[in-house]
Amino acid sequence: MYGKTSQILNKFWNTIIVGMIPLNIAVMFCSVMLLGCADTSEKKIKIGLSISSLRVERWPKDRDHFVAEAEKLGAEVIVQSADEDERKQNEQVENMITQGVDVLVVIPQDSVASAQIVKAAHAEGIKVIAYDRMIRESEPDLYISFDNERIGYMQAEYLIKHKPKGNYFLLGGDPGDNNAHLLRKGQLRALQNAIDNGDIKFVADQKHWAVKWDPLDALNKTEQVLTQTNNQIDAIVASNDGTAGGVIQALQGQKLDGKVLVSGQDADIAACQRIVKGTQTMTVYKPIEHIAKEAAQAAVALAKGETVQNADQTINNGTTDIPSILLTPFQVDKDNLDDVVIKDGFHTREKVYQTE
Ligand code: GAL
Predict the structure, then answer these.
(1) What is the mean pLDDT of residues 191-220?
(2) Which residue, by CA, sits nearest to atom 12 of ligand 1?
(3) pLDDT attached to residue 1
(4) Does residue 147 have a pLDDT over 50?
(5) Of ligand 1's atoms, which has the minimum distance to the CA of residue 151?
(6) Cα(136) to centroid(ligand 1), Å
(7) Contact partners, residue 178, CB within 8 Å, separation at least 6
């Protein structure tokens, strides 16, 4: 490259000396040449995307939309899944840091264990985005998610509207996931009046959490509660579609599916099919493409030392107020599934109504 350049320059100066080209054109030509050289060496932004797991249906979608947007913005992305192991996640991120990432985007397996990631990154001057789930006991640079408390409210509000009296069972998500606690807060807020009026009763204490959001754990815990209560349950507030699937399997075992109301979240394909069939009552749709694109744009901005557009609020993570982007979720049942989920291209009508 440079040998060739000097040749060109030699020829160029010979032409000047012979006085063929006006000086200002000559100056312009030189600066373009110098700029051209500089452009080729500009370092590509490297983003580390650390995902707690790819098991739940939504996460591969988050990954693919994120990578596509980041690459469109000229960045490269290193993606790693921690297979629901918080220690492995921390190790993987340490590795990304030694690989010279400019910014980290983290979907934490555990909201407290991942504080170590923020501290290690900040020690190297690397900014961290907490994606979908908050990182606690540290100061991530940005939090981007859907309004999880509102999602919890939507889940329980829907059930209490359709079953204002009766026996309720709350099945939380993974206790290490900050979202599970935000959902629970929103769920209880929606049920408070009915609790105060004595219209509903919790048939099991509120210590039932589906560890790692595992449908099998949800199945086992629901079977236990059905046995303990002699099947006297009217509604189950499940916190996502995966665990709702486990709950409904347990209900099927007692021929109660379609009779007991069940909430969900994520608009997984299986959940949408269950809603059409009537065994699941509702879900909450979150446009994954939206959060992934916003996060990619924010990551590139942070890597360039720019401010993040749309971080128009802060969320306190127990340590401090974190600049945040909170996106809008949508309550979905069989009546608006077409308009909200299918129209948005999240699933095809053929797949949801299983007509293909
Ligand atoms: C939550 C997320 C949900 C759900 C769950 C299990 O943090 O907000 O969409 O899928 O994790 O992965």
Answers:
(1) 93
(2) 56
(3) 46
(4) yes
(5) 8
(6) 17
(7) 111, 133, 134, 136, 317
